[in-house]
Design a protein that fits this description.
Shape: globular
Strand order of the largest sheet: 1-3-2-4-5-6
Strand content: 15-25%
Distance between the termini: 26 Å
Radius of gyration: 14 Å
């Protein structure tokens, strides 16, 4: 995973904020996902959270993939990483940013717009999707 750079925190100073991982390899972040502004998406997410850039997450059929990792408080409240796929339009990216600003997994309810983007993490059973709030 690449360097993680920051944004504003939704928790008290010193708390570990939500973190985001974006896949940017063979499919995600490339011209294979036509019409998506990958640089703008990454820049927007960096405005609200630390963002790590990953090599292939091996779910190319879901390109562009974004994983929202809970803050320390969110994890303590039961939040788990949420995998989002096909996040290819500005409205979906903005919904991710809004959710992170509100506290993210375990802290704030997931915006309904993102429900259709959630998929189970690779290697997890389909019924084990988390992060509803």
């Amino acid at each position: 995973m690449g360097a993680v750079t920051g944004g504003e925190a939704a928790e008290p100073p010193g708390a570990v904020p939500c973190r985001v991982v974006v896949c940017r390899d063979c499919c995600c972040g490339t011209v294979k996902v036509a019409g998506a502004d990958h640089a703008a998406q990454t820049a927007r997410l960096r405005e609200v959270a630390p963002v790590g850039i990953s090599a292939c997450l091996d779910v190319c059929e879901q390109a562009n993939v974004i994983v929202v990792r809970p803050s320390a408080g969110g994890r303590a409240a039961g939040g788990r990483p949420v995998w989002l796929g096909l996040v290819n339009d500005p409205a979906a990216t903005e919904a991710v940013a809004d959710w992170i600003r509100a506290g993210g997994p375990g802290v704030a309810p997931r915006p309904p717009l993102l429900d259709r983007h959630v998929f189970p993490a690779p290697g997890r059973p389909a019924g084990r999707v988390s992060g509803a709030g």
